[in-house]
Amino acid sequence: MAKLPHISSVSSVYYGQDPHLDAWLLHFMLENNIEHLVNPRVNASAEQLRFMVDIDEGQLFAPCTDWMFANLLQTRMSPELQKEYLQTWKRLVLLIRDYSGDRFVRKKVLSLCRHIFSKVLKSPFMIPSRLHKRMLDIFLSQNMLQDPYRDIKQEYNRRAQDFMHTPSFFRFISSCPESTMKCERIQDLRWQLDLLELKRFFCLSTWKSLWQEKDFHPCREELDRELGRPWKGFEEIMSKLFGPDGKDRLKILYLPSGSGGIIFDLQAVNTLIRQGHRVILALKEGFYYDHPTYWDRENDDILSQAMNNASFQAHSQASKNELLKSQRENSLLVISDGTRERLNLYRTSVTFARAWKESDLVIAKGQGNYRRIIENSHLFTRDILCLYRDSANQVRFYFKEKSPRIRKITEKEIVSKAEEIKKQMFQARMNGQRVLFYSAIIGSIPGQTKTAIKILNTFVEYMRNRMSESLIINPAEHFEPGMDGDDLMYMWEIVQRSGLIDVWRFQSVRDIEKSFELLGERVPPVWAGKDATFSTGCTKEMHIALEVQKKYPELQIIGPSPEQFFRRREYGLGKFFDVNIEKEPGHYARF
User: Would you put residue 339 in left (φ > 0), alpha (ψ -120 to 50) or beta?
Assistant: First the structure.
């Protein structure tokens, strides 16, 4: 086998530099079933990943730690990797033995998983957590189980709730610090108290003995030890992010780690909400040991009561508009991350990816999240706080600042830009002009985005020269650096629903042919027969146009008939271009 190049970190890996490395990377992606082009229904595209991770074109993102990736790249079983695999195997065997009711099924599942495990040991390409997920799916399906840990999670939550009604809890949360707080302003004192409360709830949410040990009653010394735990950098980082000086209220994505602890997580969330922040709580889609799932509240009265002030978003592909609307209307929104495994950004739902992108801060609990975020050298698109307890029962607190290359386009900025355009349209109408909005292909043809913008601008200029007393809105002239497809669609929908459009023109085949004629060029084969129906963004806009026309019947819609648009799905996540037409179930045209 050809020798692979030395890799210092996963973030330094790019395609196209070494043919043998490219082959290994493709095999790695296929073995772990995270390649988007092979399975686009469940694996995130590069555009969706860029909502969460700062990655360049041709750069690899691997959902594991740097040291794990380096071990897998050796293509041989190292002691460290073998230890990870064995821990995975032991955890699965215990689950199978404890929860397989039928003896025959238990033997069959163990035997099948042993075959898979042996194959991986001989050729270690799979991330242990991905191997675990594969075998876990086999166990659940063969035993027809939905959540074998349901009773355990309910008991954990009950014990955590019971502790909240004890004198020990009251003392832990309410006791004043021994040292006098130093402050010159009442705002500083209020912030120090808020910070202290958050720290204590975070501490309780990681103290597993409170819910995992039956009849656990911490003594005074244990409470004092927990109260006195030093968290290096905690106050400085929290003050920088939140602080007492009237900083902007934040949108926070909160990732809990386990049942029992989530009862205290929700108390921390309430503290954040009281400070004026808005929180999205992301739970697992289905069984993953003691991790709380989106559906647990249906069978757990304690958890349901603890989340009685929350709103639930069940749609796994919520649009930016839907998500922001829900968050504006609710201080606490609960979603599913779309997975039944350790945090894997390739497998998270569209709703989760958008929640990450729209947040200002991600709070991630647990060692699993620590490994996937802090021990991965990639930089992410949002600031991340990560905390967990290590094997020595010490609370670990880490902060990973978002990539300096990332600029978040805020909802306020997008709305402001939309209002500027609406103001121009209103003024044009007041001056007796007609307002025409032109919807056209921009990036629907791969590799043709520059050409699409050129022919769009050419045709709009042609219309402006021919039409008097008209204001023509050209979407290509209103782009801001940092905006992606989601931002643009959100902005244009505000404009489009304003009722200020007189004529809504959708790009036709004749428009494109005329554009190339004006450019003095022949129509290239890739553009032959194309029109706005080849853009899923335009398809979404046709839906909007028809809705607006019902409210404002005088709106004229010009271009291809609506029926020609409705063969397309939702526009491509984070793209300026569309996803391809579905050809048959489970198969998509490759672009």
Answer: beta
